[in-house]
Fold this protein.
Amino acid sequence: MVKKEVLDKISDYYTDKILEHGATPEGVDWNGEESQNKRFEQTSKIIGTKGKFSILDIGCGYGAYFNVLKENYSNFEYTGFDISKEMIESAKSLHTAEDANWIMNLEKGVKYDYVVSSGIFNVRLEETKESWLDFVDSQLQIHDQYSTKGFSCNFLTSYSDSHKMRDYLHYEEPFRVFDICKKVYSKDVAILHDYGLYEFTLIVRK
Ligand SMILES: C[S@@+](CC[C@H](N)C(=O)[O-])C[C@H]1O[C@@H](n2cnc3c(N)ncnc32)[C@H](O)[C@@H]1O
């Protein structure tokens, strides 16, 4: 389990990004809108309906995914959760007139049809690989605990070219998380590793 001090460091890392770059892909440490949207397209594959649904976005940043959902779905309840206060303030100020919830703490017992996250597993800073794996596993449990119909999330892949890999980033082994989800969370699990980034998306359908 990752300690609060570590989450604080992660939060500070992302807070610095948004303070430097504003509400832009670079402000959440992505290198552009095209790949940011490509990730949303993949994580959205968990949504199995055009009808009404509720969704929790863990690590929502400034709320870019909310805009994507609005373009594609008409009837949903969205909750964005982030550990960085500046991210949540930015999301709130960008979406003042809209019907979305922006939170900094998860409320026990509340359930959502779907839980998604994009980019929360990548930056591990000085945490050891072992403790970060515990963190990944505990976050998967949270994705499961808060969702009734399924969850999706993404990872940098261990199949990245080694000369491009960085020490402070976490590269997950697709089979490791596939195996955990298949054994613990659901029989219906998919790994999408075919969209041209050094990443993959995990889809767990319940
Ligand atoms: C790479 S950014 C992506 C933001 C957004 N999902 C997007 O794609 O535009 C990751 C975000 O997740 C937040 N974050 C990181 N770890 C988190 C955690 N364990 N729980 C909630 N938020 C987290 C960070 O503060 C940051 O805003």
Notes: The first strand starts at residue 53 and ends at 58. The first helix runs from residue 4 to 21. The helical segments are 4-21, 33-43, 64-72, 85-94, 129-146, 174-185.
